[in-house]
Amino acid sequence: xxxxxxxxxxxxxLTLAYAVLNGFRDASNAVAAAVRxxxxxxxxxxxxxxxxxxxxxxATSGLSAxxxxxxxxxxxxxxxxxxxxxxxxxAAGAWGLYCWWRGLPMSSTHSLLSGLVGASGAAAFxxxxxxxxxxxxxxxxxLLPLLLxxxxxxxxxxxxxxxxxxxxxxxxSRTVNEVSRAGxxxxxxxxxxxxxxxxxQRTGAMIALVxxxxxVMDPGPVTxxxxxxxxxxxxxxxxxxxxxxxxxxxxxxVNFDPLRGMIAQGVSAVMLFLGSLVFHLxxxxxxxxxxGIVGAxxxxxxxxxFWRNAIRVAWHWILTPVVCVFGGAVLALxxxxxx
Length: 339
Prior knowledge:
Layout: H1 3-36, H2 42-59, H3 62-72, H4 79-101, H5 108-126, H6 134-167, H7 173-213, H8 224-240, H9 243-252, H10 258-278, H11 285-298, H12 307-335
């Protein structure tokens, strides 16, 4: 086996492992609100979420193709490019495991792109092959979405509670809760589908990039085999549950009822759909769902948001690009004398 083939195999395995970790962590985005309000049981929730995450991954390849086109022209060819991808995956994976252990929801997309940018910067510093336009990628795909996506999800969820409450003003609380739980079951499936459209397609794009960089395939459409592999890895991770983060989203951020949970999930799902299908932009499922839950929960007659915990989560969102850029750079510098 040549050095290039070995690097390619390692990068593919790490990409699939990161997809499993992604699904394991982000399962909470689809199931937390529905389980919290008893719209779905935990077992049913993760099974349904896994199915729709797989479906979203294989439904289309628009975002995957856009990401491949955006990154392939900037990524170095051969071993140099594979080294950057591996360092980025390792840095993002380590940060993801740490945040899961602490029960903190964070963006797998932002972690991965930041780790890749950090590795590229270190490679440029040592004179190795690096990725062109890395800092523009960090600004356009990490920092701007980090600022705008949570604000949009929070604001829309907060405002939509007002017409929703007006529409149900003559119904009993029991009727509202029953109808909202049914709607919440549907929106939980929609969030899982959006996770596949976003995170699953990002995984497909990463596998395609690895294979193109490793000269295994030519640039072109993302194949069915790649989409199936990405969907299977993401769905397997979802089936594992990730209950630490589910507990944070459902219990430690805000007290909310089924109506507000349905609104938060609906807003998040629409944002994920539009980002993938219309604008071909990678969005953080975690940030959309978490901000939507806090926004909808905030619009109540009593103070329901545990702001100490919400600020702690937001602080780790800000730390994510910093830590992963640093981690990717350290790994690239450490491996520079070896490869």
